[in-house]
């Protein structure tokens, strides 16, 4: 090659390199601009949403605790792994001013990054669980202690104990990809297929579910629907029904929901008031599943899930109970409920009426006490309610 040809080749190469560098710089600027725009868009939504919330007559814990100072401190923060923003945390409460709480955690890191907002809401909801408090280690206690609350079957229609669990290494619903949903469903299905004895059953994926199976699960009141507007606003229903499924044992006394609101809802239930049998079944199931799948846990907050109302033990022990005399004396019912930290709901759960004097009554406290103590509060409270109903 001649000197001239070499010089030309070098010049062409230099020009190409320069052109590539200019293009790369332009692309980089464009990308940075895009990121900033996305950030600016998020801030804009936050500012306008927060302004509307402040002007509203909302009674939510979000409105109560999100001061201007906390808002300004948190509005530009994001979680390190998944980049969740304050908007991801509060958008359900910004859209639904009738929320009771109004915030969700899009990933486990949110509880730390946005702790200035989560901590006071957790303290308020969980009856004084302060930011300096630490949830005790898991302790199911002596599972033989609880008996049948209502051996004659006069009062308790059915008994149920459930807990929520998140799989370690995965974000919560709003940050899950479609692939992660599928991966988790496979992991959960294969884990549950290893259960034996009274827990042995079948896993039904929601994707591709036949009409017959669907109807059977509806008849059994097992089938969960796509999330309500509060969950929709929190982006918790993406890729529906991918990755969702239901497992139940042959006797229909043990149930697992996969990727409804939480990664796992583990439920033990049966007709009548035998809390002892229901509790033992749940404890055996959770211990068995935990050996196969590690759960997301925090030293201070206990077991972590999507909603801050469902942390610590995450245990909700409940009965459907007929107390017609107490139903006529609402003040007395509320008095006993307050004494034992019980939550009184209508027959079909929150925001519903008591049909035929039947209430759904459960433990309210889930944090700052052990699993055993949470269930014992409910056990003692229901025993007291039955005693009063008999005496009236």
Describe the structure in your own words:
An eight-stranded antiparallel beta sheet has the order 2-3-4-5-1-8-10-9. A two-stranded antiparallel sheet has the order 6-7. It is α+β, with helices and mostly antiparallel strands and 392 residues long. Strand 4 and strand 5 form a beta hairpin. The N terminus is likely disordered. 44% of the residues lie in helices and 14% in strands. Helix 1 runs parallel beside helix 4. One of its GO terms (molecular function) is arginine kinase activity. InterPro entries: ATP-guanido_PTrfase, ATP-guanido_PTrfase_AS, ATP-guanido_PTrfase_cat, ATP-guanido_PTrfase_N, ATP-guanido_PTrfase_N_sf, Gln_synth/guanido_kin_cat_dom. Belongs to the ATP:guanido phosphotransferase family.
Brief digest:
This protein has helices at 3-55, 61-65, 68-74, 86-95, 110-113, 115-125, 178-192, 211-219, 229-233, 275-292, 324-327, 330-339, 371-391; strands spanning 156-165, 201-205, 245-249, 254-258, 264-271, 297-298, 302-303, 316-322, 342-345, 358-363. The protein is of the alpha+beta class. Helix 1 (3-55) packs parallel to helix 4.
């Amino acid at each position: 090659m001649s000197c001239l040809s070499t010089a030309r080749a070098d010049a062409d190469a230099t020009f190409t390199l320069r052109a590539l560098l200019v293009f790369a710089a332009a692309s980089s600027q464009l990308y940075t601009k895009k990121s900033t725009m996305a950030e600016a868009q998020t801030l804009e939504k936050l500012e306008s949403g927060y302004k509307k919330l402040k002007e509203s007559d909302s009674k939510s814990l979000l409105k109560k605790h999100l001061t201007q100072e906390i808002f300004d401190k948190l509005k530009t923060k994001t979680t390190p792994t998944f980049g969740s923003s304050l908007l991801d945390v509060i958008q359900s409460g910004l859209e639904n001013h009738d929320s009771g709480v109004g915030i969700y955690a899009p990933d486990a890191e949110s509880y730390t990054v946005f702790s200035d907002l989560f901590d006071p809401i957790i303290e308020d909801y969980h009856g004084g669980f302060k930011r300096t408090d630490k949830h005790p280690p898991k302790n199911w206690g002596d599972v033989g202690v609880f008996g049948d609350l209502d051996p004659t079957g006069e009062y308790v229609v059915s008994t149920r104990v459930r807990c929520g669990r998140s799989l370690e290494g995965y974000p919560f619903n709003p940050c899950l990809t479609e692939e992660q949903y599928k991966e988790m469903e496979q992991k959960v299905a294969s884990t549950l297929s290893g259960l034996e004895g009274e827990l042995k059953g079948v896993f039904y994926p929601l994707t591709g579910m036949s009409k017959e199976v669907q109807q059977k699960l509806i008849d059994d009141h097992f089938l969960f629907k796509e999330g309500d507007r509060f969950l929709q606003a929190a982006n918790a229903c993406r890729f529906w029904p991918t990755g969702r499924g239901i497992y139940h044992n042959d006797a229909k006394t043990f149930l697992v929901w996969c990727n409804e609101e939480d990664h796992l809802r583990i439920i033990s239930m049966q007709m009548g008031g035998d809390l002892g049998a229901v509790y033992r079944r749940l404890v055996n199931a959770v211990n068995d599943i935990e050996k196969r799948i590690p759960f997301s846990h925090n030293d201070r907050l206990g077991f972590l899930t999507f909603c801050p109302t469902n942390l610590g033990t995450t245990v909700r022990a409940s009965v459907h109970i007929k107390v017609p005399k107490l139903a006529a004396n609402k003040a007395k019912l509320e008095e006993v409920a307050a004494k034992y930290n019980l939550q009184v709901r209508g027959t079909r759960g929150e925001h519903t009426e008591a049909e035929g004097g039947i209430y759904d009554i459960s433990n309210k406290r889930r944090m700052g006490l052990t699993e055993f103590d949470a269930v014992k509060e409910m056990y003692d409270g229901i025993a007291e309610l039955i005693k009063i109903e008999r005496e009236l």
